Amino acid sequence: MKTYIAQRLGIAVLTLVGMSIVIFVLLRLAPGDIVDVLFSAAGYVNPVEKKAILQELGMDKPVWQQYLDWMGQILRGDLGKSYRYDLPAWQIIRPLIPVTVELAILSTIVAVVLGVPTGVISAVRQDGALDYALRVFSLAGLSMPSFWLGMVIILTLVSWLAWIPPLTYVRPTENFWLHTVQFMLPALAVGYRSSALIMRITRSAMLEVLREDYIRTAWAKGQNERVVVWRHALKNAVLPVVTVIGIEFAFLIGGLVVTETVFNLPGVARFLVEAILWRDYPVVQNLVMFIAIIVILSNLAVDLLYGVLDPRVRYAG
Amino acid sequence: MRPRLLVSGLAALGAAGALLLHGAPVAGQAKAAAPAAKSGGVLNVAQREDTPQGFAIHESSTVSTTWPAMPCFNNLVLFDPLKQRESVETVIGELAEKWSWQDNYRNLVFFLRKNVKWHDGQPFTSKDVKFTFDMLREAPDAAGKLRINPRKDWYVNVQNVEAPDPYTVIFHLKRPQPALLLMMASGYTPIYAAHVPPAQYRTACVGTGPYKVKEWRKGEFIEYVKNPDYFVKGRPYLDGIKYIVIKERGTRVAALQAGQVDVAFPGDTSKTTAEQLKKAVPQMVFTRAAENVNENLIMNTKKPPFDNPKVRIAVSHAIDRRGLNQAVHQGGSTIGISMPSPPWGVWGVPEKDLSALVGYGKLADEKAKAKKLMAEAGYTPDKPVKVEIVTRAIAVYVDMASFIVNDLKQIGIEASLKQIETAQWHAMATRGEYQIGANLTGIGIDDPDANFYENFACGSPRNYTFYCNEQIGAMIDRQSAEIDPKKRLAMVWEIERKLEEEASRPTLIWRVDNFAHWPSVKNLIPHNNFYNYGRMQEVWLDK
After folding, report:
1. Which residues of chain B neighbour A162 with C-beta distances below 8 Å?
2. What is the pLDDT of residue B382?
């Protein structure tokens, strides 16, 4: 197991290096740079002033040298300086991470709590009225973009209650209740969409397992439905579901752009888009690396979970 | 110019000719803002994006910076916050207690307040004023330097800034320029501290203004607290202000409706939004106010087919301004040429006189004239010319451009729409890498000097069309130096008409905001220019 984890971490490092090159090059291939954006707020571009600023930001150096500078900074634990804010990039990024991670975790919990039981029930009641109702429910979740649902939630609240959740981030230590309210609504909007996917995967995995011989044997032995479905069938159907949950969680870390925007939550995704538009390379590069690390770690966690959930899974050393 | 106070016998100042000494009533002192004004409370204000350059107003040209940064600063003079209309008559003193034009408008002398401190406790003196304006005009011996200096052109006529004592500053001009005082009254003209590096304003603010920055949480909010040492007794009324960054427009409207913000972002409330809000919250207060932002057409005079004046004029004939206002703005904006017409502006040709100008006559006549000119240039609807129209990838730009595409098609111009990201837009426009574009232009003050020199003068970096007419350039200089307002107005109208005749940069509409706030917000009067009313000194909350 230890060797397996070490191997995976080694591959992860290589993946991150590859990722860093890709993001570094792609950013510089995009037309325009921070200086063009700065001048944009001034309504013109002055080539002499532009050159001076590029020099000041170290952007006049060859690209390979800029890359090596960045890598050197990372190894020293320094993420560089935000071009836009003229502050250390870490100072900008640090407060964003807990917001996005919390929203992603809550959304995943909502998705699992909604998706797994409905998927199981739908499979057990295959082609019944309840199955059809749940499938419509899940299809609706897949069809409705979470940002649209988020906006509908906000507009409904403001129209009916003349109230919306707080629009500046409330830390849990400041006011736990308000903090919870602030996060629950976007988590519901995002979690509903993810739950639809989880429900459909759960349903199809369960349908397959429910046709297995050992399930028929369990029924034949007179086991009650709860034991057959929830203990025997679900446990064996859960592997693809866990995979989807892992992928969804990783996606949410970088994919909450619009939800964070609609609910005005200061998270990673919203800030990343802003930083891309500003060509704030140090912030973008490091945020993308953060997202890549989360994706790699969540995939690793899923792989390790397989062994816990299914004793037949063995890790090659 | 109507002086508030005529003082004679100040020959010691070395004035030649008439000396007009203007008193400087601070808004709240000149006439009590409201007898029942209450102190206290925190005003929550919507902010559409994080301030792009921090508090560095001098390095920025957007209301996204001036609006949340103005409470930190003071100018020498400011447009009276309690008057919607901005003109030379509404200029009041801030850091300048009095000022006087001397030597037939060649010297402008300011007498500064003596009890003013910077937020860090340092005293404010004439050294700070000299520092600021030397930096802005890029004087060879300037102590400070801006990395971007968008309004350098405003001060090209300033020959020298002299600070003979700590509380007197003299601006020596190359020629008379009455508009200089108005430029100094803009929200774009705060005084920086000489002891603070200009770059520091990108991340923090040391001003003399009514509020001190408490916290700037990037991308979230800017929070101010009352400046207890403010030089105007009894001001500000508010304990603090919080500018809440809300990127999504729908959420901003919901936040206003739900009372999470007290005040909308300037320019954010379209006619349709105002109608919806009014229905939901009947007590909400709306004020129609010009933004001093126009939608215009930039045609590159260096690139075919727009290097042909006939094609440019044909295009100007072809665009249905009234239709654009109805279709895109639901009738909420106003038509006008290069300067906004009354009542929205001081210098524009009156609306009743517009119909004689290119593009403002009867629709059918205008289209016929456009087709005739296109035919003369060798293009017809059967034999169209293909062009690419560029615009920024922002909804307000795209809506306008889409409308234009349709109008162009009717006269034999097949335009394909290309959306350009903000990071590329001004670089592209400055380099002239386009044929035709749909553009928005905001102007810091309602004065021809700011507009004409920036957008129509030969060689200006914001003259994206490269239109250059030396005869008009000379007329612009002459109006700038004219000290009789009536004569100047006549000269400006003549320039405006000529600019339209030559389709130099056809203005399509002037945007009008329906500035919204809750009734508990008092003394927040939107001006006909959204860059200039963000000081918040007189604002109070009736809660």
Report:
1. 257-259
2. 86
Of B54, B422, B427, the CB nearest to A45: B427
Angle at B399 between CA B396 and CA B405, to 5 degrees: 140
How many domains would you assign to chain A?
Answer: 2
- Asked if A227 and A167 sit in the same domain, the reply is yes
- Token couple for B515: 């500035």
Taking an 8 Å cut-off on Cβ atoms, the answer to whether A45 and B431 are in contact is yes
Nearest CA-CA partner of B349 in B533, B499, B521:
B499
Residue in chain B nearest A40 by alpha carbon = B426
Tell me which of B260, B392, B434, B441 to substitute to probe the interface with A (most A C-beta atoms closer than 10 Å): B260
Query: Over pLDDT 90: what percentage of chain B?
Result: 91
Q: φ and ψ at B515, to 5 degrees?
A: -50, 130
A155 lies in the same domain as A226: yes
CB contact under 8 A, B424 and A36: yes
State whether the Cα torsion A100-A102-A106-A109 is positive or negative: positive
Per DSSP, A27 falls in state H
Instruction: State which residue of chain A sits closest to B439, comparing Cα positions.
Output: A43
> For strand B436-442 and strand B385-392, is the pairing parallel, antiparallel, or unpaired?
parallel
For B492-538, the pLDDT digits (tens) are 999 999 999 999 999 999 999 999 999 999 999 999 999 999 999 99
CA B415, distance to chain mean position in Å, is 31
Q: Which of A93, A111, A131 is the last residue of a domain?
A: A93
Q: Would strands B240-245 and B221-226 be described as parallel, antiparallel, or unpaired?
A: antiparallel
Whether residue A38 is predicted with pLDDT greater than 60 in this model: the reply is yes
Q: Report the C-alpha gap between B468 and B453 in whole angstroms.
A: 11
Q: In this structure, are residues B35 and B47 in contact, taking their beta carbons and an 8 Å threshold?
A: no
The reply to whether A146 and A251 lie within a common domain is yes
Give the number of other Cβ atoms within 10 Å of residue A139's Cβ.
13
Answer yes or no: do A168 and B220 touch at CB < 8 A. Answer: yes
In a domain, A227, yes or no: yes
Is the same domain home to A115 and A248? yes
Domain shared by A102 and A228, yes or no: yes
Does residue A73 share a domain with residue A190? Answer: no
Does A304 map to a domain?
no
Residues 6+ apart with CB under 8 A from B225: B211, B212, B214, B239, B240
Interface contact B53-A41, CB threshold 8 A = yes
Last residue of a domain, one of A93, A113, A129: A93
φ, ψ for residue B416 (rounded to 5)? Answer: -100, 135
In a domain, A8, yes or no: no
Closest CA to A190 of A153, A155, A150, A157: A150
pLDDT, tens digit, for every residue of A73-118?
A: 999 999 999 999 989 999 999 999 999 999 999 999 999 999 999 9
Contact B75, B184 (CB under 8 A): yes
Residue A286 lies in a domain: no
- What pLDDT score was predicted for residue A255? 84
Q: What's the rounded Cα separation, in Å, for the pair B402 and A99?
A: 39
**Residue reference for tokens 């524009």:** B348
Helix axes B309-318, B395-409, angle to 10 degrees: 110
Cis peptide before B305 (omega within 30 of 0): yes
Give the CATH number for residue A107: 1.10.3720.10
A74 and A189 co-located in one domain: no
Distance of alpha carbon B288 from alpha carbon B276, whole angstroms? 15
H or E segment at A51? Answer: helix A47-56
**Residue-number span of the structural domain to which A120 is assigned:** 96-265
Both A158 and A244 in a single domain?
A: yes
| Beta carbons of A310 and A239 less than 8 angstroms apart | yes
Asked whether the beta carbons of B250 and A155 are under 8 A apart, the reply is yes
Q: Looking at beta carbons, which residues of chain A come within 8 Å of B427?
A: 32, 36, 39-40, 45
Query: How confident is the model over B384-426, as pLDDT tens digits?
Result: 999 999 999 999 999 999 999 999 999 999 999 999 988 889 9
